[in-house]
Amino acid sequence: MLSIGLDAQHQRIDSSIDAAVVDVYQDPDRALKNSTELLKKVETVPQQIKVYRLRATAYLAKRDFSKALESSLAAEELTTKLQDKVQRAAALNSLAILYQQMDLYAKSLELLNEVDSLLMNAAKHNQDDFEQAKSLAIRGMIYRKQGNIELALEKLLAALHRLKLQQLDEANTANASVICYNIAYCYLDLNKTETATEYFNDALRLAESVGGESLKAYALKGLAEIYGRQERYEEANKLLLKADELSHDIGDIILQEALYRLLSENYLQLDRLALYERYYNLYRQFKAKREKNETESIEAILQLQSSQADSIIAKAEASYHRQLRGRGLIGFVLLSFVLLFIYRQITENRKLKRHLEQKLRQ
User: Fold this and answer.
1) What's the CA gap between 10 and 164, in Å, rounded?
2) Could you please report the per-residue DSSP string of 152-212?
3) Residues 87, 46: contact at Cβ < 8 Å?
4) 250: which DSSP letter?
5) Cα gap 137→224, rounded to integer Å
6) To 10 degrees, what angle do helices 85-101 and 45-61 make?
7) Chain segment 307-321, per-residue pLDDT in tens
8) Cβ neighbours of residue 35 under 8 Å, at least 6 residues apart?
9) What is the distance in angstroms between the CA of the first residue and the CA of the last residue of the chain?
10) What's the pTM value of the predicted model, to 2 decimals?
């Protein structure tokens, strides 16, 4: 009965965390408020990690990189307490996504290397493919941002293939939508417009099946960008205005900036100057917000690198002092043996001298 009661309590907490996750992009402030209460209730390490990841994601939605980084580091520290390799890989994958969204690519790839190592040594079961798919997808998104489009496409297509081997529940469907969106942009960068359109439509269809408004907004933005390149400005603007309506309350600065930039460019092409000026001003406002957040992000990154450098230096100094003490001890022992040998030789020589003197006197 106690076991059943504890399981029920854990399920209630898990349900509360899942409910808070839904609020992350719709109402990040409410998600943060709920996560503060959840931190007082959680009892297991996986639940604690989930809540810190939730907080980091909410701060990212608000583009508060400094606090997102703080929550991510707290979650990362907790992962060292996880014994199950696949469970730890899942936690590290989620953290790698957060670091990727903060443009901390080196840190994200470092965690992904650890994920691959854990999965290679873990007992095989269904979750392995899911975590490997996530790892491949994150790598693909990083390579795309770094301009390595061919390699990004290879990783993203492999991730989508692995994900489709799994049961496409709500979470997997949302992940598949994100992957299709990134694949579409890879093809767009390669000027393969027709294939890009297919994948943007796939991303939109998958997003609609789970009711993900943010995901739908991103997919619509991608399709609108293609229409803009084809000079179908009116059609593009209809999609962009719909995306703006869907995402208006989410608070995604990067998405809003992109939507207003595309709208202003399209209205300029249509010679509708009043609307061009309106959306251009909105674009500039959101661009300024993004640049401000990026400055804060750089400061947070530098602070992280500084603290990591300080930690490395402290460990190196401690190691040096240990080695110095070790060498000093070895030197002392060796010197003691040398001195003891010399002392014994001197003693033996004195005894021999006295013995010879006695012989001579005799």
Assistant:
1) 30
2) HHHHHHHHHHHHHTS---HHHHHHHHHHHHHHHHHHHHTT-HHHHHHHHHHHHHHHHHHT-
3) yes
4) T
5) 24
6) 10
7) 656 656 666 666 656
8) 20, 51, 54, 55, 58
9) 102
10) 0.73
